[in-house]
TrEMBL record:
GO terms for cellular component: mitochondrial inner membrane; nucleus. The keyword Metal-binding applies. The keyword Nuclease does not apply. Signal peptide: none annotated. SUPFAM superfamilies: Ferritin-like (SSF47240). Pfam families: COQ7. GO terms for biological process: determination of adult lifespan; regulation of gene expression; regulation of reactive oxygen species metabolic process; ubiquinone biosynthetic process. This is COQ7 protein. HAMAP family: COQ7. Keywords: Iron, Membrane, Metal-binding, Monooxygenase, Oxidoreductase, Ubiquinone biosynthesis. It comes from the Eukaryota. InterPro entries: Ferritin-like_SF, Ubq_synth_Coq7. It comes from Smutsornis africanus.
Amino acid sequence: GGVSLRRCSTREGLQGVNRPVVERIIRVDHAGEYGANRIYAGQMAVLGRSSVGPVIQQMWNQEKDHLKKFNELMVAYRVRPTVLLPFWNVAGFVLGAGSALLGKKGAMACTVAVEESISDHYNSQIRTLMEEDPEKYKELLQVIKQFRDDEREHHDIGLEHDAEAAPAYSVLKTAIQLGCKAAIFLSERI
């Protein structure tokens, strides 16, 4: 199952859409998937050969597919990426590696925090597009809904792998989620 990674028709994709809304959504989602890729890269750098390595790799593979799709949507809808990508490159890797240095539970706590923030953000975007015109944004809605479901699955995997037993879990989760909110706010606009 899953979402087809075919390119949408540029002509179809641009006709009658609310450009500012679509640009903001695609820009921030691209940045988020880029950041998620860097987080999982950091986690794999530290825990790749551990017992949790295959679990992290599986989630990372899905994030790679998400990023590929948003790369395609950026071209199809002619959306520029956020200028903050170089920063998210470093920040994502540092967050991933840093949380993994706390051990498997730390990495999973990071996953839970990030994926919960992202799935909530995707839900907000789904509501926005449904209010705009669900038929006009059918493909984009399908993509976002599928990716939201994948992020919820990653969240649940994190919980299944003892995220809540990480040192200072609630503090770590709150700090990471505040960072996610800031990243979302900035990436939508810059």
